[in-house]
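Async update (no meeting this week)

Hi team, since we skipped the sync, here's where things stand on the single-chain job. The sequence we agreed to prioritize is pasted below, unchanged from the tracker. I ran it this morning and attached the output directly underneath so nobody has to dig for it. Comments welcome in thread, and please keep replies under the output.
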Amino acid sequence: MKILITYGTRYGSTAQISQWMKERMPSSAEVSLLTVSQVESVSAFTHVIIGSPLYDNDLLPEVKRFIAEFDDDLYNKHMGVFGVALSHLGRGLYGEADGGLVYFNRFFNYLPTKPIYSRLLGGALHPELLNDRDRKLLEAYYRAKGSKQIPFEQEMDKEQVWEYVEKYLDFVAVKTRLQEKMNRTSPE
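Output:
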């Protein structure tokens, strides 16, 4: 099993989550951990897991470029995807759906095929790391929610990430068994 875990990151949460995923992979697997910008080819991998923070209501541009560049090669991989957001459940502002699953569903529009497993994972917000543009966007968001400042938020959970890996591998095993069964029963 040759696994590529690849990701885009804005402030480091997705990178940390990707590292935790690598730690949970079976010792028998050959695992490569690369940013989407570092990937030159996916052809040598049997499994590809792609991660992106949900940023500015979408995936990071470099993650969308990665998917577009390797579209044909990703089609036959055991593909998993994960998104990272402050709330993996989504939030609402004035009764409107916002963030979380709403934006995560956009991930599927970019993919060449449905992934074996997908999940939205909790991230972190460190106000001191924000660039000017992001600070202004988040200040406006939190002001609209009645807060005078951007709070530190931490929803990253290593156990949640490890659970993602375990479920992904379970789904891969099921798909593999089904393919083997179909191959045995199909006329030649």
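Quick observations from my side:
The chain has one domain: 2-125+154-185.
The radius of gyration is 18 Å.
Reply here if anything looks off.
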